[in-house]
Amino acid sequence: MIITTTDRIEGKRIIKTLGLVRGNTIRCRHLGNDIMAGLKNLVGGEISNYTKLMAESREQAIDRMIEEAQKLGANAVIQVRFATSMVMTSASEILAYGTAVVME
């Protein structure tokens, strides 16, 4: 499966557009991580637990988007984008979306 943020892939030709595909996940923070983040806020620096949480969330959203594209018979997803939103005080949604296509 080819995944790209561009609208075409050099050397390939789109032979069929299958439509929008998406994958999302909603994750919430852990109280222990919040305490550590609060302490980190005092001294500065990266909050690595949150970085890891967001990276895992993005990967899960991408995996779900790919799964939806495969069900449609796609071999590529072009114009991939990400969106995020807060759904409650300590939970955020990560959404990956793009256009499923069949490439030659």
List the helices and strands and how they pair.
Blueprint: E1 2-3, E2 14-28, H1 31-43, H2 48-72, E3 76-88, E4 91-103
Parallel strand pairs: 1-3
Antiparallel strand pairs: 2-4, 3-4
Supply database-style keywords.
104 residues, four-stranded mixed β-sheet, alpha+beta, 37% helix, Translation Initiation Factor IF3
What does this structure look like?
This protein has 104 residues and is α+β, with helices and mostly antiparallel strands. The protein has helices at residues 31-43, 48-72, and strands at 2-3, 14-28, 76-88, 91-103. The chain has a single domain (2-103), classed as Translation Initiation Factor IF3 (2-Layer Sandwich). The chain is built from two helices and four strands, in the order E-E-H-H-E-E. Strand 3 (76-88) and strand 4 (91-103) form a beta hairpin. The longest helix is centred in the middle third of the chain and has 25 residues, at 48-72.
What kind of oligomer do you see?
Answer: single chain
How much of the polypeptide forms β-strand, as a percent range? Answer: 35-45%
Radius of gyration (CA) equals 17 Å
Strand order of the largest sheet: 1-3-4-2
Question: Tell me, what is the CATH class?
Answer: Alpha Beta
Q: Per CATH, what is the topology?
A: Translation Initiation Factor IF3
Q: Would you list the SSEs in sequence order as H and E?
A: EEHHEE
CATH architecture: 2-Layer Sandwich
* Silhouette: elongated
DSSP, total strands: 4
